[in-house]
Amino acid sequence: MKKFYLQVYRHTLSTGQEDSWVDAGSLGIHPDTALKLAELGIIDVRLGQIPAGQAARVKKIMRLRRSLGVNLPGAAVILDLLERMERLQDEIERLKRR
Q1: Which value, to the nearest 10 degrees, does the dihedral of the CA atoms of residues 52, 55, 56, 57 take?
Q2: What does the DSSP 8-state code read for residue 30?
Q3: CA nearest neighbour of 74 among 55, 61, 84
Q4: Which one-letter DSSP state was computed for residue 94?
Q5: Domain spans of the chain?
Q6: Residue pair 20/14 in contact by the 8 Å Cβ criterion
């Protein structure tokens, strides 16, 4: 019988604090992966840490990789398109309320 271990990380991301950074390892990613994400312009990395405001982007990228099996550049494109769609939907809702 195989044994599985579950590791759970919880971050309370404070809004408005630009100087809060979290360890890349606590988000469940390897430091090399964090550097690759930084090279692709997806996140900022400083000394193995990521701005707390970008932690959600990392989680989305990793979920895309896990569930769809896409590589990092493909996940970056998908993330960009999803964020554009969210902004457009927000703009549509704002215009409807006028």
Answers
A1: 120
A2: -
A3: 61
A4: H
A5: 21-96
A6: yes
